[in-house]
What does this fold into?
Amino acid sequence: LGVEFFFVLSGFFLTVTFKPEKNVVGYVKSKFAHFAPLTLFCLIGKMKLIPLLNSLLFLQIFTTDVMPPQSWYLGALFWSGLFYFYMMKNCPEKYNNVVFGIVTCAAYMWCIGTSWEIGVQRGLAGMGLGYFLARLYQNEKAEKTDDGSRFLYTLAEVAVLGYGVGVMFFKQLRPESEMTAVAVYAILILLFVLRRGSVSRFFEKPVFARIAACSFSVFMTHSMVIHDVLLRWRVKYPAVAEIDEKVFALAAVVICYAFGLMVWRWFETPVSAFFKNKLR
It folds into this structure.
């Protein structure tokens, strides 16, 4: 479910940061420079030509021969983002609102009808919803928040953030329909960008931006850490196998974050900078 949050968030930021002077080639180059380093890193020791080409050409959603498996997200994000970027650059906003509305509704119906199977429809749906959230945010006039309003906004932020995070970790909170979670994520994003409650303002501190900077590295590398290392240890070593499942899961989260942080600092950041310089 967390993937749906990032699709919506990506659509939101694609819209609010869009500049007409950007071109499609530049968009493709920026995505390649951003995604290629971690794709290459995750293929270390498993270098096979076809999966490598599929990943570097963002074909993950068109084939099952991809590595790592979670990189399907990059393919859906790339092609969906390219569609929305191209349309925003070449079509008037009033037409885009209609087209994007139809595409977003159709894509969510597709998701529901196929039980949210992996595919570009999830990217089209989430990024389309993010587009409309951005338009709503841009049209929202800044207003002075009094103490009463701030309290209500804070309560809403606590409730939506708690539920949004909870559904990813506790089966008891998982809704019967994924659309419930999507709606919660959309509300969460809008509340936090409006910054009218105490929770959203608290998370504006630079330290949280630094903590979140490595999130993409964590996402791309967590599978190899869990499946290639931790679960193998749990089978191979009796001492690890005896660890309580909840404790093991918590330790896995910490280890995945620590490993992702190192990869981000010493691999993703310098290699992305290298690609960006070469593709200018």
Remarks:
- The first helix runs from residue 2 to 16.
